[in-house]
Specification:
This protein is about 50% helix and about 15% strand. It contains 12 helices and 10 strands.
Length: about 375
């Protein structure tokens, strides 16, 4: 490692680095010691392991902020070490840099597929070591801050919306249930039927709320698993027109606006399962009817593009402002004081997340007080 040399700028690092723990896994003791010495000069806390198996045990125990691991080691190489750590929930998210003297494209691609965050080709200078470590820790910190902000926003929206959304259907169920229990003998059949309908509608609203909550949580877990995402993108709906027609008409019937639905569907395979496609069209069509007036059209179009398939739903309703469009997220609702809404605002977020997991994009074009078009663009299915 003739290029590894002491840095003239070595010394105590910043206070933010002093708390970072780095695990170095390599079967060459002299290299581990050199890396440890260099990183300690920058204020990092460094622990060592002389083999892949030992590294896994140290990682489980210490839960370091970053792992530097050699690729070529006896018994268990760096790839197997990485794979083992990525398969355990407690170590799966630890940033992982592979060190190798054979940084060819095939090896790098294999490492990235297993979940490596970066490569550090041997031989490397101390400056290159510092740069790789600092860049990875900085990126991890940025991702963590963004996640914390999203969590804070989610918590705020939940605290505002969830109590209302749970209470509204529950109030209807409990109130009419109490009346039926206490005064059943004095009620007319039509009154009982009316109360029963309110209880049923409230129960369905609550059921959908719980279902969407669970679906969103499942999608977030799915988004953290590269293998599951890869398997997801291999599924297809070969003839989507019939499915889209059925689900869109169901939403039109529920809104009591069957004549307002307009369909223009180019039937071709789309790279998404029937269940997920059905969920997208249900949410987009429901929003189209919810946010527009009876007698105005809700248009559902499936069209062909050069490299993609586009599903678009357009309504003639009140529309979104530009600020609202940029804030589409889980549990977000807009203008609640001005417009009564049902649901947690999860529908659009679920459709967006499903689309992204399939390699597509969801966009919103809206003119305030005029119309809104939500378009889902998916890459074409292989062979179409």
């Amino acid at each position: 490692m003739d290029k590894m040399r002491a840095s003239p700028n070595g010394g105590a690092g910043e206070s933010t680095q002093q708390m970072k723990r780095i695990l170095v896994i390599d079967d060459e003791e002299w290299l581990r010691d050199m890396v440890q010495m260099a990183l300690r000069q920058k204020g990092y806390d460094v622990v060592q392991a002389g083999s892949g198996g030992a590294g896994i045990e140290v990682a489980r125990k210490e839960l370091p902020d970053l792992i530097l691991c050699d690729v070529n080691m006896d018994k268990m190489d760096g790839y197997h070490t990485l794979s083992s750590l990525r398969n355990e929930s407690t170590t799966a998210a630890i940033p992982f840099i592979l060190m190798t003297g054979l940084a060819d494209n095939a090896g790098m691609r294999h490492g990235m597929e297993l979940g490596a965050d970066d490569y550090l080709p041997k031989p490397f200078s101390i400056e290159a070591l510092y740069a790789a470590v600092e860049a990875r820790l900085k990126k991890t910190q940025t991702v963590r801050q963004e996640a914390e902000k999203k969590l804070a926003d989610l918590r705020d929206n939940l605290s505002l919306m969830l109590p209302h959304e749970l209470r509204t259907p529950l109030n209807g169920i409990l109130a009419y249930g109490e009346i039926l229990t206490a005064e059943a003998s004095t009620l007319q059949p039509n009154e009982i039927a009316e109360m029963g309908q309110v209880i049923y509608d409230s129960g369905k609203r609550l059921e959908r709320l719980i279902e969407n909550f669970l679906i969103y949580a499942q999608l977030e877990l799915l988004g953290a698993d590269a293998q599951k995402i890869s398997a997801l993108r291999k599924r297809q709906t070969k003839s989507p027109a019939a499915l889209i027609t059925e689900r869109a008409r169901n939403q039109a019937q529920l809104a009591k606006r069957p004549d307002d639905l307009k369909l223009d569907l180019f039937d071709q395979p789309v790279p998404i399962s029937e269940d997920y496609l059905a969920k997208i069209i249900e949410e987009l069509a429901q929003n189209g009817f919810k946010f527009s007036q009876a007698g105005t059209s809700v248009n559902v179009v499936l069209s062909d593009a050069p490299h993609s398939v586009v599903l678009a739903v357009t309504d003639q309703g009140r529309g979104f402002s530009t600020d609202h469009i940029t804030k589409v997220g889980a549990y977000m609702q807009f203008d609640r004081k001005m417009h009564e809404q049902q649901g947690l605002g999860l529908g659009l977020s679920i459709a967006k997340r499903i689309t992204e997991l399939h390699g597509g994009t969801l966009t919103i074009q809206s003119e305030r007080g005029t119309s809104t078009t939500v378009a889902v663009k998916l890459p074409k299915a292989t062979g179409s």
